[in-house]
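fold-stage: in
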Amino acid sequence: MGGIGAGASVGGTGAGASAGWDGGAGSTTWCPSDLPDAQELAATPRADTNVELLALRFSNGVVADQAIYDRLSRDLTLITDQDSSVSDIHYFPPSDGKGLLLQTDSQTASEMQAGTYTAWNCLNDAYGLQNTIISVGSVPFVELELEGIYDIERVAKQYAALPGIKSASSNIGGGDGPTICVVRKDDAWHYVFDRASGDCLAGCYEHEYTHFTVSTNGTVSALGALSAADAKLYASREVCR
């Protein structure tokens, strides 16, 4: 994966110097110590990016855990093979896992536009920078599109530690819609397919739930509609969004 000025680097004493970045005295490297390893980075994007985004909810790193992705992929396939009526419902993620919005100071934005800002090269190279939009107006900002699917909040913190970066956040998010809610238990994982509707841009207010469990050995149990009590356990906003 390549990035702008891949391989170049720069020294500095900005936020990154105290944010867990590698490099000793005289170092010109701006690579975070918690950067995923090469094997993890090579694994993304996976074949089903929607399931990958769902897997990130239960993963502890920047990249989705492979075992969790595999379990979700298997279970969701088993469910939709058994009941095709929910096959059009997919997870509604909080972000697309690849878009970043950076707010910068004016000098940094100008250097980025000129191609002379090299502090971000390590991150751009690792995460496979695909596209960049740079605005050097009165409120400078930069939009980045990365190659893989990542826990974008963790990645944003890494970019925010770079010199000249005022803030970093997901570039795409918000809204509401149909989704898949997952609660993991030792004996089985619970899946609630929420066919949400009703002014979903502001927040869906109608919900039609269909509940399944899938055991460790792959046995699917169709539990039908949710009771009000079960909805609090398996379809709360904290669980589903």
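fold-stage: in (second)
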Amino acid sequence: MNAESLPAEAWDWIVIDQLEFETIIGIYPHEREQVQPLRMDIRLGVVPFLDAAQSDDISTTVDYQRVCETIMALVQAGAFNLVETLAERTVAALFAAFPIQAIQLSVSKPLALPYTRGVGVEIFRRRPVADALPR
């Protein structure tokens, strides 16, 4: 099965709910002075898990611990003005590091506005065909 020829409805999904971390993010001076908590929900579209399920071997699938470590390293390495920037850089880093075909990602700033549970962005990106990794 070739990842590029696999229709989106045939992908399996790895789900990471509520990854929590702190970073400098925001455009206002008070946001640039101290870290803020963020939450990220991630869905990773991958080729079906059949090989991983049959072999019971983590090397045949995407290791979600390594995904979280990649995101945490990105967040700790930089400060961001916009959650949009963080979201796009996260997607780029994950496509570069893992055989992921699609990513749905949401980033929320839970303390940004006192009258909300959080504000943020949600994006969906497919791996560009030119970048498709063979499986």
